[in-house]
Amino acid sequence: MEKYYNEYVQKLEEKIQELTIELDNPILLSQEIVGLLIACLAKLKQFVLERGFKNIEEEIHFFKRLKPVVLAKLIYYNAIYKIEAKKPYGNGKTIKNYIDNELAKLKRYFDNNLEFYKYYRTNSTYLDEKYFVRGKYDIKLSLDTYYFETDHSFSTSHDYKVAKIIANDLIQVYLEDQLNSTNKKRKSENSPLSWTGSKTALTELIYALYAQGVFDNGNADIKVIAKVFEKMFNIDLGDFYHTFMELKARKINRTKFLDSLRDALIRKMDEQEE
After folding, report:
1. Which InterPro entries does its entry note (predicted)?
2. Is 250 exposed, middle or buried (0-12, 13-18, 19+ CB in 10 A)?
């Protein structure tokens, strides 16, 4: 199951990156990607219904960790489509008010689902059989009306909530970027540190930390992590996913920067022992 999923999602990511390069208009881009994601979810559903799951553990893993990643992308790009399509014309203040209102919606969702946010982000498991097994639900566990309208052969009571959490983090990053771009005067809140190494090196470091799962118990999205590093070190990484693909394609020493970090730290330790 997971091998098929990983191969399929990697192809999906590559296609999304191609579209991102080809289309500058966020409305047209979102429209294309939404269609792509709908087809992807249909394919995953067909695979699940034909193959089934070996056991409850595999079912929980799929609906807690795998399906929400794709569904989150659908929620995200659909949200971007609506945000951009409804964005008003006007001065900086008009746009700022509009974006602030969209950010407030994210905050309300967070406040209304705080208990589940805590459960998911702390990697809790004691309610997994109610949250992530099909046909099991508890009306007392903060169900969205959406659940009762879905196909229960491919949905559980809380897989959508997980996807919504992931998507909302990405939407927040997008809105904050939009907000920053509308401010003509740059706020003097930049980090006192600037990254003076290569963008490739920083991308390698970010992906290593992401792979290790050191942020939000491994639940943080790579785009969110990259955006934090960009702000922290006053750098624009550009298409960091493409940079990562170039790292993967290296024939020799794919972790060149990480290896150099290790060597530098060991040298520093040795010097201080002398």
Report:
1. Tet_reg_excision_RteC
2. exposed
